[in-house]
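Predict structure. Chain length: 90.
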Amino acid sequence: MEFDWDRANLQHLADHKITSPEFEQAMQNDPLIIDFSDETGEDRWYALGGTKGLRVPFLVFSFRGGRVRPITGWDANKKLQELYFRKKGE
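Prediction complete.
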């Protein structure tokens, strides 16, 4: 899985205290896709992912040129964390 990083998406993640390695790890750990929308002609995907440290970030991303384009992310609230762990435990 390849990622499309630039200053803008790195800053969006940093604003929410998520590092690029955490985002990549959450994406590579079989994230739980919860929704998608068409934003200005580009699909945006919304997912919950898990890190090795059991952090559950809410991930927003798209696909561009066969690569994952991170848009932003933040720590999932308690309700979404519970959903993630319940679904991953099934």
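Summary: Residues 25 and 51 are 6 Å apart (CA to CA).
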